[in-house]
Amino acid sequence: MLIALQRVAIGDIRFWGVAPQIVLAFCASAGIAGGADRGAWMGFVVGLMFDLGTGSLLGQHALAYGLAGYTAGLVNVVAVDPHWWLSMLFVGLGSAVGEFTVPVVKTFVSDGGWHGERLSSILPVVAITSSMLSFAFMPLGRWSLAIRKKTWKAPAA
Amino acid sequence: MPIYSVSRRRAIVLLVLSSVLLLTIDLRGNPVIDGARSLFASVLSPFETAGRVVSTPLRNAWNGATSYHDLERENERLHDEIARQRGDQLTARAIVSEYQELLTLNGLTAQYPTVTARVVGASPGNFSQTVEIDRGSNDGILVGMVVVNNAGLVGKITTVYDNRSVVMLANDSEYAIEAKVSAGGELVSPSAGTSTSVSTPTTLNTSTTTTAVGSPQVGPTATATATTTTSTAPATTTTTTTVAPRPSGVTTTTIRVDQHDTGAFEGRGKGRLPAMRFVAESAIRVGSVVSTTGGSKSLAPPDIIIGEVINIVRRAGSAGPLLEIRLAANLAQLNFVQVVRYRPPSEVPPG
């Protein structure tokens, strides 16, 4: 459903010419919810579906989204129970890493050229929009990975 | 789990290797992957339809909020442009009609079937310039076919599914096509003995040209009349051209003496003007028209308008000038496009 939305709707809603990446935000949020490993695999599988759905080279977005989930999950362990704003920051960071990977892979596999001059506007917009979307996507990521939210119980006296 | 562990490292290495393997297989072309892609597109189709229905009010609201001032400015600009182009239009109609007539006289007319399609999706990513259209292989569309609109070249088909296709736009950094640029030249005014009359449009998408050419060899009273009906022009033009027989037995008509340089037209990504390279140093000037070259192996038929030269970057050495091109088609606002079902002669099976 997210892939379909990205294709038919989000492509038209642009901030300074940059489309938010909701599928990428979901993968990074899944990394926060489930940790680096599960985030990586979730990103890989969702990225494969994205590649199949958009006609891009198979593996291109799988690698990028996998890295996004992995990065978000990896940096999330710096705090035992990170604040909401820290989680937002990590989702933004993971999304930026994922989005940066796309032109890198494109440069390696094709003659598409390097989009260096546009990255300075693309990465901040994607990171900020992903951070904002993380409010909705972290519960969704937890649900899709069948993870219960952590609850802390006081030790019995 | 600690940040660095053998199992975690193994997992990420496996993930990267899997991606590289899939990329390699897909780059080489694999029917299994193509089949999976087609199957997934079919599965995704109902979700896209639902998403489109649900998101239409949201998109409209967004466009209304963000594009209002742009639309207002563009509206004013377009009013000015319409006023300026109204005068040019009549002249252009006459020239186009004469050109078509000359092609007819020389047996050079070529009509290519087209499929009209609606643009239903924008580029989902930020690094490729593509759109999705609602026609696919069921309508005879093949990978590589050229996509145009009323203004000119839009792009080419890169992926085809049963009922939809992906179009790589001409400003994508991977887009390239052989092109020619008019190097200027004199436009010879109509010679004596040629009369041209242009009438106002009466029927949409129909152009009728009636030509009467005197044939001195057969006799001054004998005339050959040719009537052709074409559907290429967006507006209708009815032109009657009469070339009077010459005493010498030679029929003279209007001739455009244009020189052309060929080169490679390439997109350079969003935010950068497409460019044309490998053009010989010549009398190319700002405003020269760029169009497709055609040829036995080119996927595009000849003479599709691409755009005009708006900047010439002189380069040292033998690299030749770099021409920056403004596309004739507005790729930011595409609603309906036409897929030209043209196959180059080298790919058409004999017989």
Topology, pairings included?
The complex is a heterodimer of chains A (157) and B (351).
Chain A: H1 2-8, H2 22-54, H3 60-76, H4 84-109, H5 116-144
Helix pairs in contact in A: 1-2, 2-3, 2-4, 2-5, 3-4, 4-5
Chain B: H1 6-28, H2 31-66, H3 68-105, E1 114-121, E2 130-133, E3 146-148, E4 153-160, E5 165-169, E6 176-187, E7 194-198, E8 207-214, E9 223-230, E10 238-243, E11 256-266, E12 275-277, E13 289-292, E14 305-313, E15 322-327, E16 336-340
Parallel strand pairs in B: 8-10
Antiparallel strand pairs in B: 1-2, 1-16, 2-5, 3-4, 3-16, 4-5, 6-11, 6-13, 7-10, 8-9, 11-12, 12-15, 13-14, 14-15
Task: Explain the overall architecture.
The complex is a heterodimer of chains A (157) and B (351). Helices cover 71% and strands 0% of the residues of chain A. Chain A has helices spanning 2-8, 22-54, 60-76, 84-109, 116-144. In chain A, helix 1 (2-8) packs across helix 2, helix 2 packs parallel to helix 4 and helix 2 (22-54) crosses helix 5. Chain A starts with a helix and ends in a 13-residue tail after the last helix. The mean pLDDT of chain A is 81. In chain B, strand 4 (153-160) and strand 5 (165-169) form a beta hairpin. Chain B folds into three domains: 8-66, no CATH class; 110-186 and 256-347, Rod shape-determining protein MreC, domain 1 (Thrombin, subunit H); 187-243, no CATH class. The longest helix of chain B is centred in the first third of the chain and has 38 residues, at 68-105. Chain B has helices spanning 6-28, 31-66, 68-105; strands spanning 114-121, 130-133, 146-148, 153-160, 165-169, 176-187, 194-198, 207-214, 223-230, 238-243, 256-266, 275-277, 289-292, 305-313, 322-327, 336-340. Chain B is an alpha+beta fold and 351 residues long. At the A-B interface, helix 1, helix 2, helix 3, helix 4 and helix 5 of A face helix 1 and helix 2 of B.
Unreliable spans of chain A: none
Which spans of chain B have pLDDT < 50 for at least 5 consecutive residues? 185-257
Quaternary status: heterodimer
Radius of gyration of chain B: 25 Å
Distance between the termini of chain A: 48 Å
Give the termini distance of chain B in whole angstroms: 68 Å
- The CATH architecture of the largest domain in chain B can be given as Beta Barrel
The CATH C-level class name of the largest domain in chain B: Mainly Beta
Total number of domains of chain B: 3
Give the name of the CATH superfamily of the largest domain in chain B.
Rod shape-determining protein MreC, domain 1
Number of strands of chain A: 0
Shape of chain B: globular
Number of separate domains of chain A: 1
Query: How would you state the average pLDDT of chain B, rounded?
Result: 72
Please, how many helices of chain A?
5
Radius of gyration of chain A: 16 Å
- What's the overall geometry of chain A? globular
In which range does the helix fraction of chain B lie? 25-40%
Structural class of chain B: alpha+beta
